[in-house]
Amino acid sequence: MRIAMIGTGYVGLVSGACFADFGHRVTCVDTDAGKITALNRGEIPIFEPDLDRLVAASVSAGRLDFTTDLAGPVGEADAVFIAVGTPSRRGDGHADLTYVHAAAREIARALQGFTVVVTKSTVPVGTGDEVERIIRETNPQADIAVASNPEFLREGAAIRDFKHPDRIVVGTSDERARKVLGEVYRPLYLNQAPIMYTERRTAELIKYAANAFLATKITFINEMADLSEKVGADVQEVARGIGLDNRIGPKFLNAGPGFGGSCFPKDTRALVKTALDHDVPLRIVEAVLAVNDNRKRAMARKVSSALGGNLRGKTIGLLGLTFKPDTDDMREAPSIPLVTGLLDLGAKVRAYDPAGMEQAKKELPDITYCEDPYAVARDADALVIVTEWRQFRALDLKRLKREMATPVMVDLRNIYRRDEMEELGFTYESVGRGAV
Question: Can you give the pTM of this predicted structure?
Fold first, then answer.
């Protein structure tokens, strides 16, 4: 199959590389000439484990290429995937569909023969209808089917998620489109990945509903963590106790500083706005957003409390900045309100992240960046574990203690044990593991 992937952001680049690895002929298109030039040099603009290797192999085999020219690849394609950004619109939280609509118009002018146009970007319910309207209005002779095929990729595990999905959702009532997309995903049949065919609007809502539900699980366990601290319970044992119930499951039950990233905050806000437009208030999802925002702001106060309530002139070291490990993504990362709060309380902040410091400098220009965790610890009054990178699980704790001005550790990801830290002489604070 010949595939045109419009957009070389996270979703577009990972999806295009994986489709090419399946054996399809894929061209990734982007209006950013600098990004395309870099990709053609073999430079990957995002950090995702194994993505550089996957791209290099498919480019070498002649199955993957990159261009700013949309017309040629679209004219030859059996399927055109729209994988452009849908950021939150300023002012109201709706998904900004400017790039989706612009892509639809360009695609319409380049179509030749029957083509399936697929929205892979996360979009509100009804977007596929508008994409189809734009294409038919721009090119009344176009022979198309417009489908929805939402992605369910976790940053840091995206390639595995693409190749071993829990499900593939395809929203279309057109039989020709079903056949084309069935062929696109045929290599996954050996993995027994179920393809779920639905109506287009249902597929669009599935994506938003999935993210909102996962965000709700995270927020629920974070509230249980707050209660655990007050009553002397251990939230990790609470999470294990409820997660062993197969109706609940263990995933997304790790207490921490709140969810961030490119999907959950944006998509939950967009879902709330869509529901309000249809006079259907989503009180649970609204509460999830409010609780999560308040939680991220409260983390600076947690650090202050660990140092007796006064951060004026204190040096605080942060281990991790990205919203999760194995990515360089800083979008809505909990570290951003944490740093803002620490600075407002008079602290000096230094930080280290294995992959995200270049991105972090754009969001957090007023802190000091260090070359490793031990440089962060040097003369620090407290260390805060913000992101649970694997390398932070095996730190030389004795060396950290020697480097620090005062051995205070605030572990927002619960990666260490209180008894071990206290035995080493640390003042140790974590999330949801109270003592009475």
Answer: 0.93
